[in-house]
Amino acid sequence: MKVEPECAACILSRAVAEAKEATVNPALRFRAINEVLRLLDKEFKPTSVPADLGTKRDRIVKRVTGNSDPYKRSKRLSNEKALKLLPYARKLVNEGYAQQDRFKRACLCAIVGNVMEFDIPGHKFNSSSLRKSFRDAARDLVIDDTNRIYELARKAHTIIYLTDNAGEIVFDTLLVEQLKNMGTTVIVGVKGGPVINDATMEDVDISGIGKIADKIVTTGTDAVGFAAKEVSQEFLKAYDSVDLVLAKGMGYAETLTEYKLKKPHVLLFRTKCNPVANYFSASREKNVAKLMP
To answer: If we measure between CA atoms, which residue out of 243, 249, 207, 204 comes closest to residue 226?
Structure first.
């Protein structure tokens, strides 16, 4: 997926927000924003991928401010909020009569968890809106490949589940549980270092997903989405070994669409911005369960 004109405003807006989270020093904030502006001047072009520019933006903010994890506090709070809502979401999943119904409900809960992201212009969430999003999840599912996804998952021997945000990873446990109940070996992948509010190994422990999955790997990099040239050999080995890839969030949607995929990939996310919504011919703030290619 390539950038649209409004991506420039989003990248800059998030840089300002991240710089404020990273430091109280106004001189460092100013320097960080200056460098992001130079990045956009040099690299913002029609062939650019928004997630790649987001990675470079985050690295600038972290390097200039000296804060390696600007969203550390926000991620902790997200995990706490999600853990409080987990019993409610689990009840929704367990109300499914058949395995396929429970699988779809778990997919929806995982997608709803993707609303837990900060500083996207025009996108906000809170605990009360999350409950409503769970209730409206099926109605808001505008791309629904869950039946085909279920059939592939049921037949798969090994699946890799690529997580997105902290907080959201708590609801991912519900889908990983369903995959395990179907007899599938599940590898869970998290980011190798802090980037925006994406989940890392610290969030694996808090969410409890490590107790459910058969194996946990990191991407080996702090890149947004999938960066084939940066991931570790350990991650690449796991990724190449599976029958099916489940990828959460817009970052993976923006990047995996740039590759010629050799195996089925599932994109599970919320359309939190217009460019992503436009790419998938959907409205903004809707749920997507997309099977690729």
So the answer is: 249
Residue with tokens 């409900």, as numbered in its chain = 105
Could you tell me which of 292, 275, 119, 257 has the C-alpha nearest to residue 284? 275
């004109």: which residue's tokens? 5
The whole-angstrom separation of Cα 58 and Cα 69 is 10
Fold type of domain 72-292: Rossmann fold (3.40.50)
Tell the CATH topology of 6-65.
Helicase, Ruva Protein; domain 3 (1.10.8)
Numbered ranges of CATH 3.40.50.10880 in the chain: 72-292
- Does residue 60 register a pLDDT over 90? yes
68-110 tens-digit pLDDT? 999 999 999 999 999 999 999 999 999 999 999 999 999 999 9
Who's near 6: CB < 8 A, 6+ residues apart? 273, 274, 275
Tell whether pTM > 0.90.
yes
Whether 115 contacts 137, CB under 8 Å: no
Closest CA to 225 of 63, 54, 72, 68: 54
Contacts 24+ apart (CB under 8 A), 178-184: 178/93, 178/99, 178/102, 178/103, 178/106, 179/153, 180/212, 180/213, 181/99, 181/102, 182/99, 182/103, 182/153, 182/154, 184/153, 184/156, 184/157, 184/158, 184/159
